[in-house]
Each structure stands twice: as C-alpha cells, then as structure tokens.
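Weekly structure sync - notes
Attendees: PM, LS, DV (DV joined late)
Agenda: review two folding runs queued last week.

Item 1: First target. Sequence and structure tokens pasted below for the record.
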Amino acid sequence: MHDELTAQDIEQMRAELKERKTATLPELIKAVQEARAFGDLSENFEYKAAKQELNKCKRRIRYLEGMISSAKVITDRSGEDEVGLYDKVTVKIPSMGDQEMTYHLVTTMRADMLKGRITRESPVGSALAGRHTGETVHVQVRPDFGYDMVILSIEKQEDDGSIKINEF
C-alpha cells in the first residue's frame, strides 16, 4: 500500500527527518549518556525519561522513512468547479437542521478532524471529491448508517505548505 502524498508533504518529511538525524538524535543520545552517569539506573528518572525521548525520536525516524519510501506522489487534477485536494468545501446537512460545516481536503499527513481537515479517503472526503457546488452527496459512514450533504461552496486552495505535517 502506498500513501498518497504531495511533493510538499514529502519535502516537509525529508526536512524533519534531516533535523531529527543530524540534530535531535545526537542531542538525545548525549542526554541518555549524561543521565546514565548519574548512577543506579533502576531509580534514575532522568535516564528513563531520556531513553523514552530517544526511543520516540527513533520511532518517528522509522515512520518518516517508511512514509517517504512508500509514498505515491499525487497532484490535484480537479477542475475549477469541482472539489479537489486542498479545497475548502462548505456543506449543509439537511438531516441536522441544515447545519453548515466547512471541510478542508488534505493528505493523510495533514489531516486533523478537529480543525476540519479531512482526507480524500475518509467517508466525507471520498463523497465530496470531484463533486460540484449544489450537488447532494451521500456519505456512507458504515453499512447501516449514512447521511446526505449539499455542497454550498467550493473555495479553491493550493498546497502552499502552510499546513504542517502531523506529529504523533
């Protein structure tokens, strides 16, 4: 399986990877060595904390390397009047009293549902992708539940790098 990412996503991941390998990792290794020098490791909180941070950094490095190596580079090919990658889409949900919501379609590395950033692979994102203003789309959340949304507006956006990649 390949993760669909933009060139900007990969560039940001490579920059983070370089920073972690050349600066963060050596600092954390040094911190572990210094904490180890404090003595008894069984009751050495500084050592345990330093080891945890080092392991977290190593996990992130492996994760970034895996994402970069398996990435499939994509670009937005949507038309001017259809929902595409990085577009902001305002919808209303008739079953919820015409409540309006705005979603921003992004890649997996930048998704954050709490900020309205959803992936094209999510139920809402896949229902919206390629659709036009005024269309009613059906979002199938699970086999026994779905709902309709009406697309009110599409605000075309570019991948300008302002949305940073997610950390964990």
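Item 2: Second target, run right after the first with the same settings.
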Amino acid sequence: MDKKEKLLTIGQFAAMHGINKKTLMWYDEIGLFKPAAINPENGYRCYSYHQSPVLETILLLRELDVSVSEIQAFMENRSAAGLKSLLEEKITDLDLQITHLQAVRTLLCTHHRNMATLLTMDLSEISIVEKEERCLVTVDIDRDTSFEKEVELITAETEKYRLGRLHKASYGSMISVDSLLDRRFDDYSRLFIEIPFLPYQSGLHITPGGKYLRAFHKGAWEGLPKRYQEILDYARKHNLLLHGFSYETGINENVIDRIEDYIVQIEIPVR
C-alpha cells in the first residue's frame, strides 16, 4: 500500500501542517474541513495525505485574513476561477498594506534622522547638502490666509490622498526665493505635504534634485527674518545662486513643549 494512502491521526495531520489539532476539530464542527474518515472503533478523526493541499489553501486564506464565511463560500464552489479571484483581491489588499508599512518606515526614518540631527547639530552652521527630487502636494496661501483656513486646506488634501492621520506625512511651508531677495520674509505662498511613495501626478510640485543650502532656526517665527538675512549673506559671500523656493520643516515638534525650543530646518536649492 502506498504510504500516501495511509490515514493519519488528527495529531499527526495537525503536526504536519504546524497547527493545533483543536483547529482541525473546529473546522470539522463548522463544516469547513472534514476528516477523510472516522475510526469506527473509537470515533477518532483520520486524515489523508491527499487532503493536505486543501487544508494548506484554507490556512493560507486565513493567514490573509479571509473570513471563515468567505472561505466556506469558496469551498462550497471550489474552482480555479474562484481561487484566482479571491487571491487577486487579497494581493491588492497586501499591496496596500505593504505601501502603508513602507510609508510608516520612511516616516520613522525621518524622525530618527531628525533626532540624530538634534543631538549633533550646530544651529549656527549653514551647509550645502545633496537632495533627491521629490513630489510634494501643495496648497496656495497668502498673508491673509487665517490659521483656521490653513488647517481646512491641509485637512482637505489629507482626505484627498486618504492619509487618514496627519502622522503619515510630513508638512512644511514654502516661500519663494524672489520674496526672500526682496526682503519680504513673511510672504509665504504655499504649504506642502510630503507623502511617502507618492507617484508622480499632474499638479504636484516637484522639488529639484541637486545641491541645497541648509540652515536651522531655533525659536519663535519672529526670528526667522534675521536668519534668512544671514542665509542671504552666506550665499552672496560664497557666490551661491538661490532659486525656486525655501522649504521650511519643523524637526522637533514631538519633543518640545515651548515655542522657544522649536527648530525649523530651512532648505533652498542652489546653483
């Protein structure tokens, strides 16, 4: 007799698939997965080796969080087309979960990098760094835009891109280099949202890749004009041509209680 034709006890079959035999008993009770035979002498459940692929399919679907009722419906009309459709749906769900986890990891790395910067930074330093091209979601503002309106605009974009919660992206403000050169240091024209893994779409703002002047400012926003003047003086002294926009991002909001301790990172493309 072929060894594969021999019946296995519930304990043996459960061990072969890395599950508890109580799981098999429950599957039997709800009619999801029946044993191949019942021992007439003791009433014990017995399983065939050839049932393994069916059980593995059930276990895979359970691992993918397919409900028992969905699996039961599939098992009642089991077919290649039915399994293909079910797996396609779950692959889509997994892709969304993977994208979400990648975005969370990117955000955690950003926070980690910011904390490392906080521990080693020289706030007076102005440096040149290399940055990659990025896609940003932006909303237009001006000097008359109220804080309440800014919140409304950001909330609308958050909902549009299905962020769910604010922590899933990083936020900042933009002021044009033209405004800085004209000493209009409060002439902010846009707010931006950086969403990890956001594919290019029409209407997005693209930050150029290349060299950026990077500086920091600590304290209330009223002190930013003085810092921008220092940045302009530095650029002039080192023959750097600023262009585009200045991108401001707070890097320590989650570890401070006072506005006096607030640190904003300023990055401006240079040629």
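Discussion on item 2: The first strand starts at residue 7 and ends at 9.
Action: LS to circulate a short write-up before next sync.
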